[in-house]
Amino acid sequence: MKTMTLIFITLIASTGLIAQTAIAPAAGVGSEGNPYEVATLGNLYWITASNTVVPNPNQSARWSSHYIQTANIDASETSNWFDGEGWTAIGDFTGSYNGQGNTIAGLFINQPEANSIGLFGYATGALIENLGLTNVSINGRVGVGGLVGRLRNESTISHCYSIGSVTGALWYVGGLVGRQEGNSTISSCYSMGSASGAHSVGGLVGEVATDSAIFNSYSTASATATGANVGGLVGRQASNSILLNSYSTGSVAGGSSSIGGLVGSLLTGSTIANSYWNIETSGQTTSAGGEGRNTDEMTYPYAANTYLDWDFTYYWAVDDEFTINSGYPYLQFLDLIPPKPAIAFFPENDAINIPVELVFEWLTDPDSAYPAPQGCLFAYWDAEENPPEIEDMIDVEDDTTYEVTGLAYNTEYDWQVIPYLILEENRARQPHTSRSLKSPTREYIIRENDYFYTDNCPIWSFTTGEEGLNTPIVTSIVIEGNVYLNWDEVESANSYIIYVSDLPYTDDVDWEEIAIVSEPGYSELISEERRFFRVVASTNELEEPVLLIPYDQRKRLGSVNTREHPSGE
Asked: DSSP string of 137-189?
């Protein structure tokens, strides 16, 4: 009987692997501060599933929510979904999706009569970033892209790429995006593979419509059309649109008219600057915009008249060994590392009895594998209120402290520090995207005007003490093998609790209570091991000092920090 039960469970699990199973994310609530965490294909399908499959939250709510992807996802089984039609595009997406550098592999769509398809069908006022699609196979009708079918209404795509085959029966076909419109932006993105359709076909974007822009992007994808407007990067670029600091190397073929190595057609009022195409690999010597170069000029060492005014400090990297991008420049987001998140020194996370007048203090991680931050943003707020937007945070530059007075007694507060790097001022400016960055612990770069910020730094909490009881300010010194702790007497305190730990700079320190004293001052022998102390004021009365753990029954205490610092819970 046990054997039969086991076989039955196994069959059910195996069937689930080839079915369309919507699985709610295990973590997150879909807000900016606490986004849904997408870890599996089932989580991804949950976003796009119909209301019949996922009635709550409904599809509209799911499409307006915020997401982070926490692992690479294998989507190859979508080729067996819905009688071979494959993935159903996430519809009119208005939220945010941060891939955190992860990929989705093998996404399959075969819907030759469907419009606006890709991983996302429409993106309206949305933010999509830090995501890679590999081995895509997408076939649709109008508005077909590897990542997004139609990008519109001030949407932004940054640090994304698409690799694979994208086909459309009619208009607006691109390796990354089918059609871009409505003041939307694509920055630091690329495409590889192929894009083919009838009209307005581009290796990266089929059509860039009015008031939209592409910055610092490239395509090696081939672009093939049977009708008009085909280009290595963009098929058709409409009025008042911008293409800046970008290039293409893919072959451009077919087309009844408006065929270009970089851009097929360019309408009046549009701008193309410092952008190039390879006249040899594209098979095209002309373009509606941009400048043609041969392979030697576009690969390392680059010709002096190529990649003018490009930022090789923060956007582009040199492939001088021809091992990453065949000698062409590649985007640094593939290997650019942000500063590590800061570490709370005072108040520590979940600390209590914190004074209403205090100096916040934090540390920047000295890990040599990460760049040192050039500054930090700081904010604190009542825990019952919403976190501030990034533009409302305080720029403390290179300081690691911030003094605050006038906090309320017995109140819980949150606080956060966001390290950043400063970009060079002489590079092309990109649009500002205002959004909050409050989620637990991931480390990834986002782009805000002149800065690279470490994204989603931790938020720490603390609670102020009751009126009349403050936290002692402790000084420590080591003399002749003894450590001496000293602090000023705290008003209304009747005793002081001494704690020790060997991990002072993390959020979840296991502080060990070792003694209680009735007057300020404490001393111990030390050893070579490094230890840290904290002192907490208490209203409990105590006549004589109490050594809770005899010295010879616990680890010997090590030397302590000789800096002056607040200490308390």
From this structure: EEEESEEEESSEEEEESS-EEEEEEEEEEEEESSEEEESSEEEE-SS-EEES-
**C-alpha span between 552 and 157 (Å, rounded):** 61
463 and 476 Cβ atoms separated by less than 8 Å = no
> How far, in Å, CA of 242 to CA of 423, rounded?
21
pTM for this structure? Answer: 0.61
Residue 334 DSSP class? G
Distances in Å between the Cα of 449 and the Cα atoms of 420, 421, 427, 430, 530 are 12, 11, 11, 6, 43
| Helix and strand counts by DSSP (H, E) for the chain | 5, 51
Q: Same structural domain for residues 433 and 559?
A: no
What residue numbers bound the domain in which 490 lies? 468-566
Position 504 pLDDT exceeds 60: no
Residue with the two structure tokens 């790429």 = 161
DSSP result, 411-473: -EEEEEEEEEEEPPTTS------------SS---EEEETTEEEEPS---EEEEE--TT--PPE
Rounded to 5°, angle at Cα 311 from 305 and 312:
90
3-state SS class at 196:
strand
pLDDT per position as a tens digit, 320-354: 988 888 999 999 876 555 677 888 888 888 888 78
| pLDDT in the model for residue 371 | 67
Instruction: Assign 93 to helix, strand or coil.
Output: strand
For residues 236 and 349, membership in a common domain is answered with no
d(CA 334, CA 97): 18
360 pLDDT higher than 60: yes
Q: Summarize the confidence of residues 241-251 as an average pLDDT.
A: 96
Q: State the pLDDT confidence band at 496, using cuts at 50, 70 and 90.
A: confident
293-332 CB burial, b ≥16 within 10 A, e <16: beeebbbeebeeebbeebbeebbbbbbeeeeebebbbbbb
pLDDT per position as a tens digit, 266-318? 998 899 999 999 999 999 999 999 999 999 999 999 999 999 999 888 789 99
Residue 458 has pLDDT above 60, yes or no: yes
Average pLDDT, integer, range 100-116:
94
Query: Is the CB of residue 344 less than 8 Å from the CB of residue 362?
Result: yes
CB 527 within 8 A of CB 498: no
Nearest to 83, CA basis, from 21, 145, 19: 19
| 473 and 535 assigned to the same domain | yes
What CATH code is carried by the domain that includes residue 442? 2.60.40
Written in H, E and C, the secondary structure of 339-397 is CCCCEEEECCCCEEEECCCEEEEEECCCCCCCCCCCEEEEEEEECCCCCCCHHHCEEEE
In this structure, are 380 and 488 located in the same domain? Answer: no
Residues 477 and 443 in one domain: no
**CA 255/CA 374 separation, integer angstroms:** 50
197 and 127 housed in the same domain: yes
So what's the pLDDT on residue 484? 79
Per-residue pLDDT band at 525 (split at 50, 70, 90): confident
